[in-house]
Amino acid sequence: MCCLFGLIDYKHHLSGRQKGRILCSLSAACEARGTDATGIAYHSAGRLHIYKKPVPAHKLRFYIPNGARVIMGHTRMTTQGSQQFNCNNHPFQGKANRLPFALAHNGVLYNDKILRRTLKLPQTRIETDSYIAVQLIEQQGVLTPASLKAMAEQVEGSFVFTVLDHRDNLYFVKGDNPLCLYHFKSLGTYIYASTEEILNQGLQKTWLTQERPIKVNVDTGDILRIGSDGKIDTTYFTMNINPYGYWERYWLYTPEMHDSGIDNEYVSELKSVAAIFGYTPDDIEALLDQGFTTDEIEEVLYCSGI
User: Fold this and answer.
1) Mapping DSSP to helix (H, G, I), strand (E, B) and coil, where does residue 73 land?
2) Residue at a domain's end among 236, 267, 283
3) What is the span of the domain harbouring residue 125?
4) N vs C: which end of the chain shows fewer Cβ within 10 Å?
5) What one-character DSSP code corresponds to residue 33?
6) Strand runs (DSSP E) across 144-303, as ranges?
7) 31, 60 Cβ separation under 8 angstroms
8) pTM of the model
9) What pLDDT sits at residue 276?
């Protein structure tokens, strides 16, 4: 569980200091969904800048240049890849036809290793499952709504992606994870976060509470592109749903675990996996005591955790 946040100042009304204050307040509210690392991406002086550290948002200093019009942010709760290795943290940088882009992800992807092997994608020192989305875009050699559609229809899991291209277009690729986007029309600014509650909480400490924003509807399967002029274009994709995807990630290469019945090693592994969904070892023990089989516990985790 991570949190996306950011803003688009398409009328150029905000100073760098004002944008920094908004992002500071917003990112602090995003700590409710992750404190392991924080990062932002933006363009300034013709270059893509990505600034990230393995610290909670309130410990990250936000310096936003006046020329930065679009800022994309992320707070992380680690599920795969230690946050202490900063390359594992969001946003990630990629290149399509030698043009840089930044990508951030909220969710969990299950088939990253399978895709990397079957599509013969390069091995990488980045351990985070999210990075497969960068590689899929790079493989196509172009960043467009069509290439984002192809990427979104190949990955399996839960997701919302934000992608910032070299022209300051910000894309939202909306899977089944939450996203809330506000439009402050008179100010010429879009501001977003992963949930409406977090977005409202983050805005409470800013002067923006004096304006009533318009909520922009973003549905599962939408790819929104907000241009540097504030205009929105929408295309669509179809979610790739594999009900066994999550468990394949952990057990595809250990089939003997499926047939061995309940043993200490199996239960220990189950407890480790369950922690990703917010369940404690005691919760798993309680389910076993109630007569649940390990297969039934897997189903409980999957249905309640996604």
Assistant:
1) strand
2) 236
3) 3-236
4) C
5) G
6) 157-164, 170-174, 180-184, 189-193, 214-216, 222-226, 232-236
7) no
8) 0.80
9) 65
